[in-house]
């Protein structure tokens, strides 16, 4: 199966499976890169290297699945190949990594870019995006038959799942000079419907979503400048742009799950451009700025109980996870009522009018 494609774009180097059980990254550096799988569903995280006969290129992408296998998207000669990697229990002298080829994408138009989408919420499906100005194709590359599942007019980027089944996908579509987030129903042949329409000429992108609460994290220039905002999926209320996020040069990377019908109480983690981490709730008027742990891998995972787990790798700890808890927000400024009018001063009897 083929599609016009020539260029690979690299997403986050560390990806976490939808259920938080496994993660994957390209470890090593220079010409000695290899996939590495992290096991997170245990008392202590540990990593398993998955090297093959040849090292991986720096533009290869990996994605962790909930069954412990790692999807890899790599450049192979003139093709873009997808395969599943897994550790084997063979003899010590034998291979340590098993590989199951899934399919490939043939090269074509120079303007087409291919990248993996975030892990499917069901934990087993995986999808890729092949985008160009002429149109965008969504490919299923794991968890089902390898092939095209949607074709969308315009160049699409991003990729945010809106449900827990892996059916509704939000993409940022550039069309007629503006970028608007649209919803793509993969269960209905890629049917496209508008998702964000804040202003007619504004660029409205969806950055993150939580299906439990419906919380949406948005970046839009509708207020006159690019700003972070939030809304609720399916709500008639307008998108809000909190003052505490004005000028915030950060990207949300994790939302607290399990807060059904309570989007204001969801913890949100932001990756700040200066290198730190921002913690915020929509109900708060304050962003907590905290230093990132040494060797932080740039992403993380919220627990339903409000604990943010951050993976990191250092020479001393090549596979580590540390936790943060969202501090209690400071109380809002006290708003005093206007002081009561002064009571009339008693007039001494001798000065009182007769």
List keywords for this structure.
five-stranded mixed sheet; four-stranded antiparallel sheet; disordered N terminus; mainly beta; 27 strands; 0% helix; 354 residues
Structure overview:
It is a single chain. The chain has 354 residues and is mainly beta. The chain is built from no helices and 27 strands. The chain has strands at residues 7-8, 14-16, 22-27, 34-39, 46-49, 61-64, 70-76, 79-87, 97-105, 113-116, 126-132, 135-142, 147-152, 155-161, 168-175, 178-185, 191-194, 204-209, 215-220, 227-232, 250-255, 268-272, 277-280, 288-290, 301-302, 307-312, 320-325. The strands form seven sheets. Strands 1-10-11-12-13 form a five-stranded mixed β-sheet, with no helix packed on it. A four-stranded antiparallel β-sheet has the order 2-3-4-5, with no helix packed on it. Strands 6-7-8-9 form a four-stranded antiparallel β-sheet, with no helix packed on it. A hairpin with a 7-residue loop joins strand 23 and strand 24 (288-290). The radius of gyration is 25 Å and the shape is globular. It starts with 6 loop residues before the first strand and ends in a 29-residue tail after the last strand.
């Amino acid at each position: 199966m083929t599609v016009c494609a020539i260029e690979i774009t690299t997403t986050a180097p560390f990806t976490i499976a939808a259920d938080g059980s496994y993660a994957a990254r390209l470890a090593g550096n220079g010409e000695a890169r290899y996939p590495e799988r992290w096991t997170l569903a245990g008392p202590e995280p540990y990593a398993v290297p998955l090297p093959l006969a040849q090292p991986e290129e720096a533009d290869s992408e990996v994605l962790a699945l909930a069954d412990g296998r790692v999807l890899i998207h790599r450049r192979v000669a003139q093709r873009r190949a997808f395969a599943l990697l897994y550790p084997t229990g063979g003899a010590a002298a034998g291979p340590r990594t098993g590989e199951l080829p899934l399919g490939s994408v043939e090269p074509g138009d120079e303007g087409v870019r291919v990248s993996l989408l975030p892990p499917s919420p069901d934990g087993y499906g995986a999808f890729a995006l092949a985008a160009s100005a002429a149109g965008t194709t969504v490919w299923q590359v794991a968890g089902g038959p390898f092939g095209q599942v949607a074709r969308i007019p315009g160049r699409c980027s991003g990729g945010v799942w809106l449900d827990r089944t892996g059916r509704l996908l939000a993409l940022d579509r550039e069309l007629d000079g503006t970028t608007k987030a649209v919803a793509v129903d993969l269960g209905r042949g890629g049917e496209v419907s508008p998702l964000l329409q804040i202003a007619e000429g504004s660029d409205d992108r969806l950055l993150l979503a939580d299906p439990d609460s419906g919380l949406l994290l948005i970046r839009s220039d509708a207020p006159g400048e690019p700003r972070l905002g939030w809304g609720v999926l399916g709500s008639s209320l307008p998108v809000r742009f909190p003052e505490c996020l004005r000028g915030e040069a950060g990207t949300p990377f994790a939302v607290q799950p399990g807060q059904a019908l309570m989007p204001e109480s969801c913890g949100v983690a932001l990756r700040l451009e200066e290198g730190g981490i921002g913690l915020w709730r929509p109900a708060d008027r304050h962003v907590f700025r905290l230093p990132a742990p040494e060797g932080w891998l740039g992403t993380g995972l919220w627990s339903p109980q409000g604990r943010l787990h951050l993976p990191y790798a250092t020479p001393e700890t090549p596979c580590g996870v540390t936790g943060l808890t969202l501090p209690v927000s400071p109380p809002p400024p006290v708003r005093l009522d206007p002081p009561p009018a002064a009571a009339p001063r008693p007039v001494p009897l001798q000065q009182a009018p007769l």
